[in-house]
Amino acid sequence: MSHRTPSQLCSSVLLIVQSQQVTGTAHAVRTQYDYLHFTRAILLSLGLLLHGAWFCSDGNDGFKVLFDLIHSFRMESFFLIAGFFSAHTLCRLSPVNFLLRRSERLGIPLLFCGLTLTFLSHLLGHVRRGPPIVMLRESFPLDPGVHLWFLRILLFFVLTLFLLHLVWPGIDRGIKLLRIKPLVFLFALVGIRFFALHLTHLLVSDIWRFSCLPRDLEDAINYVPWLAGGYILFHHGELLGRLIDLVSFNVCNVAAFLLLQPFLERSGTGHHLMQIWQGAYILSICGLLFWFSRRFFSNPHPYVRSLSDASYTIYLLHWPIMALLREFPFSRQAPNFLLFSSLTILTGVSCYGIHMAVVRRSPVWAWLLNGVPMPGGKPWNYLLPLANVLRPYLARKYRQR
Question: Half-sphere exposure of 334 toward its Cβ, with a 13 Å CA cutoff?
């Protein structure tokens, strides 16, 4: 077996990346899972209401309730859909191509938005001669943004799936051969989620002396059951269909959970019961969202589809725009309801306008903000001449070792 020098490896990787570029934009690619794309857009867009409620929750119980309600299911549902589409992508691409494509889709917006937010926060801090805007400044210089944490978690899951497929190439075939009953899937997901939740509590406790555990690792442990659940749902479509069709059960389960939660949370036993129950509650929320999207948006209107396509841009931009709007003097004296309405509407319109006027029309901005591959393999093809220039230097360093 021949050994490649670092310069040869560098050139090979760049050639692979260039060969995997897809012309066109993301909104040109649609499948029979269009309703799941729309559900994912709903979950991402709920960030507008979530953070708008967060800004207005101080001294207002109504907005705190809205924040807690959205926060109780939103990211778990999102990672369930992420696991589903990860399995869908791995069925069409090799593990290497999956890693390259998803790294570009997630990594480029993470890097660009993180650097932009870092620069913006420090610039505003100097302008105001005070500390930067709350939550726009990173805790560490290399941390690319507080509200972009989910991109880091997704990149970690992409790398994990890539390594898992290298170690166990037949994993998808093995999952398909499993005979999983709906109740088994429900109890397994709820049980693993409960175990993961308490595992993170133990790891950050003083007993285990892991109180400095990175927050991203905590989140990865908490959300990995949902990613795995979505991965299984793709290979067992009957489970997904069953989850969507149980409309009456899902409605009753969600209603009972929300009605009984304030009473059961008052005791230690009730608190643990609610932690177990919350897994089934989130799964029912997913079933209702999937039913609603399939019922009304399986073949969405072009305008609805454009909103769905803009959801990635809306999520990436809404938090800094909302934080900037919050700095205007009118927002400090406005009533909470007026503040909430103005923040969410102005932020949503601004983000959608940026997507339609800039991201959708410019391949460069679509690449920077959405990770959409640029036509012709750009900008990766510009790195090939650079690799050729560096080849003699890398080869000399390799021989010295």
Answer: 17
